[in-house]
Amino acid sequence: MRLAVISDVHGNLRALEAVLADIGTRGVDLTVNLGDCVTSPLWPKETFEALQVLALPTVRGNHDRWIEELPDSDLSPAGLFARAALKSEQRRALYSLPTHIDLAEGILAVHGTPDDDSTCLLEETLEDGRFVPARRHVLKARLGNAATARVVLCGHSHRQSITLGPGGCLILNPGSVGCPVFADISVAANLEYRSPHARYAVLTKRNGQWGAELLALEYDWASASARALDNGRPEWAMALSSGIVG
Q: How far apart are CA 96 and CA 59, in angstroms?
């Protein structure tokens, strides 16, 4: 069994196209999407329409929820751009996505943690501002009863990783398809150096054991950067072309 895992597309149609083309060469049985589909100053409407045609099993991310339920005053500039670009029924469709999906073979798909789409499962921010892998007791608490799953798929942090958690639970974050670092958050300039590649993962079961490949693809990030610049977001343009903000 081979499962492609994508997350955090964030309206980057060019990155999504590159990832889908690569998935098509890898003989996967299913592709699952861990949410945060459209929020960005890029191509939210076009990305929604592309994903709608694919009809992938998709978990609701925090941004998929926020662009429907938050008042304008609480939305980021990227959220406001996405809200304006989408029709009301498209926003409702994102809001109506499930908070988690139980897949075959004991695989649980979530966006953040099993109980909170706005909290990273595998990372934490320390008092000195560093964004680091979560300590054991923090991860165990965040997993809760989901620690009994064979595999937990999570996104939200935009940071690729494979972790063997408590009880032998494999935790996979495929990274972000279209947004190496979310330029609207205040801590973005303090994060580690990243890269502009489009990221996803392939989960494979062999001889009863699960393993994963973490993939980072080149794509036309100059086009995505130019789109952000055209829409008045130079900080997004820098993040998309370099993986850093500031």
A: 10
28 in a domain, yes or no? yes
pTM: 0.95
Domain tally for the chain? Answer: 1
Burial 14-51 (b: 16+ CB within 10 A, else e): bbbbbbbebbeeeebeebbbbbbbbbbbbbbbebbebb
Helices then strands, counting H and E runs in the chain, come out as 8, 11
Express each pLDDT in 40-90 by its tens digit.
Answer: 999 999 999 999 999 999 999 999 999 999 999 999 999 999 999 999 999
Which residues lie across from 123 on neighbouring strands?
Answer: 133
For residue 35, is it within any domain? Answer: yes
* CATH label of the domain that carries residue 154: 3.60.21.10
What does the alpha-carbon distance between residue 5 and residue 214 come to, in Å, rounded to a whole number?
Answer: 10
Q: How far apart are the C-alpha atoms of 72 and 68, rounded to whole Å?
A: 10
Task: Give the residue among 89, 49, 92 at the shortest CA–CA distance from 69.
Answer: 92
Identify which of 140, 126, 231 has the alpha carbon closest to the alpha carbon of residue 184: 231
Query: Is 94 inside a domain boundary?
Result: yes
Residue 215 is part of which domain span?
Answer: 2-240
Q: Strand 151-153 vs strand 107-109: parallel, antiparallel, or unpaired? A: parallel
Tokens of 50: 């592309």
Residue 246 counted as domain residue: no
